[in-house]
Specification:
Elements lengths: L7 E6 L3 H14 L3 E7 L3 E3 L4 H6 L8 E3 H4 L3 E12 L4 E6 L4 E5 L2 E4 L4 E2 L7 H4 L8 H17 L4 H7 L1 E5 L3 H18 L9 E5 L11 H13 L3 E3 L4 E5 L2 E4 L4 E3 L2 E4 L3 E2 L17 E2 L5 E3 L2 E3 L4 E2 L12 H19 L13 E5 L5 E5 L2 E4 H14 L4 H19 L1
Parallel strand pairs: 1-2, 1-8, 2-5, 8-20, 10-11, 10-16, 11-12, 18-21
Antiparallel strand pairs: 3-4, 5-6, 6-7, 9-17, 13-14, 14-15, 19-20, 22-23, 23-24
The structure holds flavin-adenine dinucleotide.
Length: 409
């Protein structure tokens, strides 16, 4: 049998953007010839783009969570973590969430394991800080903030009120900036017209004075305006060196009292035994070739990988690039299955965007900068289009409409 007429088993590690968009391309091009398996611990894909909307209260927490069964309906889902890969035998060892071990064979392996939050380097951060990456984390933080508002309302004096409503966000990248603004908006809305309003304090701690460096320089001034306009205080350059249940210690020895600490720092790829001999970049991300292959039959992209552009520079790391790389990996694996030549990666991202509440966003698309309503509408349309399932888009739209009606009533 030739490669073109036998069945192929494609295994995806992770159910993020990279895996879902590879699956889509493969399903469209060679779906009838392929058996799909996805190995991932959660039953949902987490759409990080809505982190700010969930934290501000604009969207409910489950707006971020698309069932994998909807996003990859033809794939068998093995719920668990890939623990090692045997490239010679073409197998993956999986530790399932029910504790059992399982060996999964592959013809093509697509590694889309993203990054994890490596918080262990800062004393107490793992135990005491809220994080934003994994499924359900943002919802947990939103619920905690509501609890803090309740505590402030029942507090005996102003000192306790202030303590309940003090938040520190560690990390001045785009995720930290969007989160701090959204938290400030949630607290402002929840305390509007009450004595607690003056007690809310959100501090963004950044190691560099330049914030949100993922955005092009021409948009960073607008990002700063959003930070200031929402009353977020910026401490920079400063570093959180220890976290406790009631605040953080900075590198100059200062103590910031806080009932909520959010970690928007420390994302890095986790090396997978069996692939850990492959070359990595200074982030620790495995280097792909121009076809997005890392070894024979093994492909990668997204946050887990360092993908070279035609210039030799590495691709930026964000959801848009993970989506583009995912489609490319899927198309190249389909070409192998059809016995055709694979193509070098030439996809280009349209741009970058960040949101700061209704009608407040910044966007760079095709080199042009936009802000305000136009940017907000374009961002919403773009994010809606790239939600991994149509039923999820309908649920998000229904949630948006009912929240708007609730606010007007
Ligand atoms: C808070 C936050 C906000 C963000 N906001 C934006 C934004 O507004 N715009 C933007 O473009 N980008 C944003 N990003 C970045 C974007 O989310 C990432 O670039 C994108 O998720 C990368 O996609 P991926 O498929 O590589 O990984 P992910 O989407 O992270 O998916 C990784 C998958 O691998 C799974 N996994 C991990 N380890 C294993 C294992 N050993 N075995 C099996 N499965 C495993 C995970 O559970 C998950 O399913 C944000 C990121 C964060 C954390």
């Amino acid at each position: 049998m030739s490669t073109t007429d036998r069945r192929h088993h494609v295994v995806f590690l992770g159910a993020g953007y990279l895996s879902i968009w590879s699956y889509r391309a493969l399903k469209r091009k060679v779906g009838k010839q392929v058996d799909f398996t996805v190995v991932a611990p959660a039953t949902v894909h987490t759409f990080h783009g809505w982190t700010g909307e969930v934290l501000s209260g604009e969207l409910p927490p489950d707006a971020q969570l698309s069932p994998i069964a909807e996003a990859m309906p033809a794939a068998r889902h093995v719920r668990g973590f890939a623990r090692s890969v045997d490239r010679a035998a073409r197998t993956v060892e999986v530790e399932r969430v029910d504790g059992a071990k399982q060996t999964v064979h592959y013809d093509h392996l697509i590694v889309g394991t993203g990054q994890y939050e490596d918080l262990g380097r800062v004393e107490g951060m793992e135990e005491h800080a809220f994080r934003l990456r994994d499924a359900g984390r943002t919802g947990k933080l939103a619920a905690h903030l509501d609890h803090c508002v309740e505590s402030a309302r029942s507090a005996k004096d102003e000192k306790l009120r202030r303590k309940s409503l003090s938040v520190v966000v560690a990390g001045g990248g785009l995720a930290g900036v969007e989160a701090s603004v959204a938290i400030a908006q949630r607290l402002a809305r929840a305390t509007e017209g009450t004595p607690e309003r003056e007690c809310a304090d959100v501090v963004l701690v950044s190691t560099t004075g330049e914030l949100a460096t993922e955005m092009p320089p021409k948009l960073r001034a607008h990002v700063r305006e959003e930070i200031q306009g929402n009353g977020v205080r910026v401490l920079a350059p400063a570093r959180v060196v220890a976290v406790a249940a009631d605040g953080v210690k900075l590198d100059d020895g200062a103590w910031l009292s806080a009932s909520t600490v959010v970690a928007a720092v420390g994302n890095k790829p986790r090396p997978l035994p069996g692939l850990d001999d492959l070359p990595v970049d200074d982030r620790g991300a495995v280097r792909t070739d121009r076809l997005l292959q890392i070894a024979p039959g093994v492909w990668s992209g997204g946050d887990a990988a360092s993908v070279p552009l035609a210039s030799g520079e590495p691709c930026p790391v964000d959801a848009a690039w993970a989506i583009g790389q995912g489609s490319w990996v899927g198309a190249n694996v389909a070409r192998v299955i059809r016995g055709r030549r694979q193509r070098a990666f030439t996809w280009k991202s349209v741009g970058v965007t960040a949101g700061f509440g209704r009608d407040h966003a910044v966007l760079e698309a095709w080199g042009m900068a936009f802000r305000g309503r136009v940017a907000w509408l374009s961002r919403a349309a773009f994010f809606g289009y790239y939600l991994p399932s149509r039923p999820q888009l309908r649920r998000v739209l229904r949630a948006l409409i009912s929240r708007r009606r609730g606010k007007r009533a």
